[in-house]
Write a structure and sequence with these properties.
Keywords: Membrane, Transmembrane, Transmembrane helix. There is one protein chain. The protein is mainly α. It has a domain of 95 residues. α1 runs antiparallel to α2. The two termini are 53 Å apart.
Length: 137
Amino acid sequence: MFIVVFLVVVVVVAVAVVVVVIIIVVAVLVLLVVVVDVVVVVVVVVLFVVVIVVVVVVVVVIVVVCVVVVVVVVVVVIFVVVVVVVLVVVVVVFVVVVVAVVYCLLRLLLFSSPSSSSSSSSLLFLSSSSPSGSLLW
């Protein structure tokens, strides 16, 4: 939002400068026509055109630079958001895989323990054969 306001301010200031320069030059031309000869008026008109061209070029360069800055900022923000989203997805997938591997290893260790006649192991076998236990295992 700040960048949009900045661009609007730059364009308004540039237009105001151009208008002020045009008013000043027209006033000077009117005075020159009244006071001096045509050769001076031609020179002043040529200088006026050069000044207007320079001012327009400067305004265009400022606007282009501002637009490029806005585009670069938007691209950088989009890049950062994409990188953060990808990192979050990678971390979540990694955590899910680690939890699944640990769960599988724990199941293998519990079911392949040599004391299968112990109470905890037999409870695990019993719970895995029941309908509600089969959902858990």
